[in-house]
Amino acid sequence: MKLSDLRPAEGAKTAKRRVGRGKGSGLGKTSGKGHKGLKARSGGGVKPGYEGGQMPMQRRLPKRGFTNIFRKEFAIIQVKDLNMFEAGTVVDVELIWASGLVNDLKNGIKLLANGELTRPLTVKVNKASKAASDKVTAAGGTLEVVTPC
Questions:
Q1: Which residues, listed in sequence order, are joined to residue 142 by a DSSP beta bridge?
Q2: Spans of the chain, pLDDT less than 50
Q3: To the nearest 10°, the Cα dihedral for 18, 23, 28, 33?
Q4: Is residue 79 part of a domain?
């Protein structure tokens, strides 16, 4: 098979409908749109969600819950990710950012307890789970919770 032999599948390419080109074309005069009415007009048609005057679904259903505009989101790192650092390193937010473990700091960094830590480190993060804190201290390191700037 050569590149010049490639053809679209049978029926995949159809000719464009040329409307309004006389009676003989089959789509002359009203161009297949019938007579008058909303869908016959230029730019005509109903908006998404319009139900013909009936109360629309998004207005019939009750509202639920709310969005807390003061919510803090934290970038997540796992305990196993800290094994990339040498023993005795002070792992802080700047080092985590520079190493590429997170690509968006959000409101700070939170340490979670997925995996095991095999070397003693001094970890300074904005939040940490209790289990993550236990794993860092069990490996001989220390965990400090620092406030985000």
A1: 122
A2: none
A3: -130
A4: yes
Range of the domain at 128: 75-145
Q: Please report whether residue 139 resides in a domain.
A: yes
Q: How many Cβ atoms are within 10 Å of 94's Cβ, its own excluded? A: 9
Domain containing 104 — which CATH number?
A: 3.100.10.10
Give domain status of residue 125, yes or no.
Answer: yes
Helix (H, G, I), strand (E, B) or coil at 143: strand
Alpha carbon separation from 53 to 37, 46, 58, 64, 75 (Å, rounded): 16, 11, 13, 25, 46
DSSP at 98:
H
- 118: tokens are 């095999």
**Residue written as token pair 């804190």:** 133
Residues in contact with 119: Cβ distance below 8 Å, sequence separation at least 6, in sequence order = 83, 85, 86, 87, 88, 139, 140, 141
The pLDDT value recorded for residue 149 is 57
Are the CB atoms for 108 and 92 separated by under 8 Å? no
